[in-house]
Design brief:
It is a single chain. With 577 residues, this protein is α/β, with parallel strands linked by helices. The chain has 23 helices and 16 strands. An 11-stranded mixed β-sheet has the order 3-4-8-10-9-11-12-13-14-15-16, sandwiched between helices. Strand 15 and strand 16 form a beta hairpin. Helix 9 crosses helix 10 and helix 17 crosses helix 23.
Length: 577
């Protein structure tokens, strides 16, 4: 922006001081660097696409390429169909609209939520280094947001920085969200097992992987070296793809950032769908309350139910949900263990070795739950009256609750699956991490007050570090010039680890001064790398600590605040009961 301002001022000065003809002559003499159109054009199975160059990252991007037909009309709640062929060239320079969801752009809880997006949303985006060599590793990103919102928004998430530094092709995708992405009701059953699973979001991701397999070579990528990666719900979806027989052979590495293993039964999906439909009937005035709506629904034929739900706009389904624990997100069952897309017993599949065995990175953040716990009583009240930032006893209690809750998250998302899968001799190496930036000790904080208390190393804090961005995720709120040097060093290290893993299934670059990242072992010794930074440099070390529910509960029994912390631990959602 500074260079643009200088050029504008300089050109104005010229116009005021030299004859117009001479000025035009000078302009014509300035060499103009244009990208050859052929460099931006690629052939896909559906037709040609033209992208655009990003001069800052020295990459070429192609945005909003369809990987499936729009899931609208009769294709709503159907397994994704291939996209249509095109005769015209697709100019892929702008992001598509998000899938239907509550807007999460305004973090003020007092602002009414609005619904945005459209059902025609099955598109993907690609970044490739300019003048890239062939057969680069492919980094396939699955966004988070509880499978109900897109977080961070893909229009904020510049994949070019990671693509350039890692010398790889970066792909980000949209997939169906909320009740459009996971909806399991008997009236929608067909003879197609994929459609009948209700796992439409996962089927979208599989369809996108198939498209990448068929086309990525023309964008410089290697279809035989694809790494799936995701954060939060995207990390959960990574676990689902690792277990899905339908995804076998479609990827070759996997990274789950703060992902958890939480599946739902088809029965719970059907019960939830009945509740949603009953609420729709109440909204329509067909019934006075949900009980009478349930009676009306029970008397309807499957064909009538199917016809009814197909008349409703996607936004109408979203209005049946109360506000979720995080702005924009709704609570609903996902990842149905249907026996076709996903195994009926997820942990049973892991323990038996009946899953897609690939090298993996599994990780979590030191204070995951601070992003969510602050919204629950009594902490929400203490935040409003500012006592959470001033009262040492309240701060200690808040920190302790999140310490145990976040440890439970780590056990479920990282240590337990790492131990189970590493028990198979044919399981390739699994690397685990703990992200600590933001969780500094008193006097060593990298976040401004009171953010280091309220958020710390919370959920989603690592996303900007992985992509090298400043403001795609939480960095927009917490990055500043004081913590820049250290966090940039950590971000560069993480991008190097992530991209080397995508390249060679081992995160340790051959030529580097980075600390060695040792793979997880079920034996004694280092297991997890700790990723942190102070204000000036990255601080990266290996740890031998393993967390289980048993070790957490044993520690809790000795905790002086045990009686106050225990209810939070007992009610924790993100831990395996």
């Amino acid at each position: 922006m500074r260079n643009k301002r200088i050029f504008t001022s300089f050109s104005t000065l010229l116009l005021c001081s030299i004859p117009c003809a001479l000025f035009i002559l000078l302009i014509l003499m300035v060499p103009v660097h244009r990208v050859n159109a052929a460099v931006l054009e690629r052939q896909t199975t559906e037709g040609k696409v033209v992208g655009e160059e990003d001069t800052q990252t020295r990459t070429i991007s192609w945005k909003a390429i369809p990987y499936a037909s729009p899931p609208v009309g009769n294709l709503r709640w159907q397994s994704p169909r291939p996209p249509e062929k095109r005769n015209d060239v697709l100019h892929a320079e702008e992001f598509c609209q998000v899938c239907p969801q509550y807007s999460d752009t305004d973090l003020n809880p007092e602002t009414p939520q609005i619904i945005v997006g459209q059902e025609d949303c099955l598109y993907l985006n690609i970044w490739s280094p300019k003048n890239a060599a062939k057969d680069l590793p492919v980094f396939f990103w699955i966004h988070g947001g509880g499978n109900s919102i897109q977080w961070p928004a893909l229009s904020w998430l510049d994949g070019g920085i990671l693509a350039r530094r890692g010398n790889m092709v970066v792909v980000t995708i949209n997939y169906r969200l909320g009740p459009m992405g996971f909806f399991n009701h008997p009236a929608l059953k067909t003879s197609d097992k994929e459609t009948d699973s209700g796992n439409f979001a996962l089927l979208d991701q599989i369809a996108a992987l198939k498209w990448v397999q068929a086309n990525i070579k023309n964008f410089g990528g290697n279809p035989d070296n694809i790494t799936i990666a995701g954060e939060s719900a995207g990390g959960q979806d990574v676990f689902c793809l690792v277990a899905s027989p339908l995804a076998k052979g479609l990827f070759h590495r996997a990274i789950s950032q703060s992902g958890v293993i939480m599946t739902s039964t088809p029965q719970s999906g059907a019960e939830h769908a009945d509740t949603v439909i009953a609420r729709l009937m109440v909204q329509d005035g067909k019934a006075s309350d949900e009980k009478s709506a349930a009676d009306l629904l029970a008397a309807m034929s499957p064909l009538d139910i199917k016809a009814y739900v197909h008349t409703k706009h996607a936004s109408e389904f979203l209005t049946t949900y109360p506000d979720g624990p995080v702005r924009g997100m709704i609570r609903f069952p996902t990842a149905f263990s249907d026996g076709h897309v996903l195994p009926e017993d997820y942990y049973g599949a892991l323990k038996s070795g009946n899953y897609n065995k690939v090298p993996m990175i599994l990780g979590s953040n030191k204070e995951e739950t601070k992003l969510f716990t602050q919204k629950s009583p009594p902490f929400s009240e203490w935040k409003k009256d500012f006592s959470l930032y001033k009262d040492p006893e309240k701060i200690e209690f808040y920190d302790k609750v999140n310490e145990y809750q976040s440890a439970g998250w780590k056990a479920m998302a990282v240590d337990e699956p790492a131990r189970i899968m590493s028990g198979h001799k044919d399981q390739p190496d699994i690397y685990t991490y703990l992200f600590l930036w933001g969780a500094g000790e008193p006097g060593k904080e990298v976040l401004a007050n009171p953010y280091h208390i309220l958020f710390g190393a919370c959920h989603a804090m690592e996303i900007d570090f992985v992509f090298g961005t400043d403001d795609a995720s939480l960095g927009a709120f917490f990055f500043n010039h004081l913590n820049q040097k250290g966090r940039v060093a950590l971000s560069n290290a993480m991008m190097d680890y992530w991209s080397e893993f995508a390249r060679a299934a081992n995160p340790n670059p051959v030529k580097t001064d980075l600390p060695r990242w040792t793979p997880w072992s079920n034996d004694e010794g280092p297991k997890t790398i700790h990723l942190d930074a102070d204000l000036d440099k990255a601080v990266i070390t290996m740890s031998s600590q393993e967390v289980t529910n048993t070790t957490i509960e044993d520690a809790l029994k000795k905790e002086k605040l045990q009686s106050r912390i225990q209810p939070f631990w007992d009610n924790a959602m993100l831990r395996r009961k």
